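Limitations

Structures in this collection are predictions, not experimental determinations, and the ligand pose is part of the prediction. Treat each record accordingly. The example that follows, with thiamine diphosphate as the small molecule, is included so readers can see exactly what is and is not provided: the inputs are given verbatim, and the output is the predicted complex.
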Amino acid sequence: LGGHIQRVVVFGHPTLSRPVHALLERSDVEVVVVADHGPDWPDPTGRAERVVWAIQTEPAHGQEGWLAAWQQAGKIAQHAIDDVLDSSMLTGLAVARHVWATRQDRQNLVVGSSNPIRDLDLVAAPSILDGPVFANRGLAGIDGTVSTATGVALASGWPTRVLLGDLAFLHDAGGLLIGPLEQRPDVQVVVVNDDGGGIFSLLEHGEPAYAENFERVFGTPHGADIASLCAAYGVGYARVDDVVELRRIMAAPLAGRSVVEIPVNRAQLRELHAHIRTAVASAIDSG
Ligand SMILES: Cc1ncc(C[n+]2csc(CCOP(=O)(O)OP(=O)(O)O)c2C)c(N)n1
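Predicted complex:
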């Protein structure tokens, strides 16, 4: 299906998702950017052939069956991913799936950079709930996420769940501190703790050739005691070790400020993603 794409119309800043970038880089794809501001239109791959203020769409003018084919492939892929996750250990992907499944109306979701936003991108099905999802680039990516969530919760008045990795959490642990004279929003921080930067095992850095130095330079384990850190900041803490407990905590009403730590293992992430790719490809081939 992807091979048949001839033109991409870009609104706003494209995501960091690699498949989206790969599509924008394809020489056989025309890129049209819709931007309403001066010379700074977003064109990360430098391939925009046209930059326009607006476009007019003609309803139902596409090739017969095009949309249905994508929707069908999307459903098949989603089932294949769900099947793999059902039979694998508790991972960031599984947590993202439960976080998505238990979203509520009038509740915000803030998603940390690195794997959490990519995990959600992979597992989340379209939703009609009235609850916005925020993702922050911060200064360089993983900074400021706890503080962002606090701001989102205060500004909206809605309870806010945050899904983020342990390094992103530790980077902004100071954001847990709220002075006694300040308002305390309802914020639940869900920390997928793989003791370091899980994303790098999925990128080029994780290739076997670099295995010798990987852990110290990119894995960066820290062994931080998150329960003690929460106690120091006076924030509630719960640890989740299995799916049953995860489901229970995610479904409970979100009130006050708390941290939910979910220890996971990043050692098999590369294999898990390879497994998902194979499962999706073969499900679509036979579907
Ligand atoms: C402020 C800042 N420092 C460093 C980085 C580089 N960086 C990108 S992803 C990442 C690892 C993040 O680890 P974690 O939040 O635990 O998520 P995981 O990859 O384990 O899912 C780092 C250090 C960054 N993007 N921003």
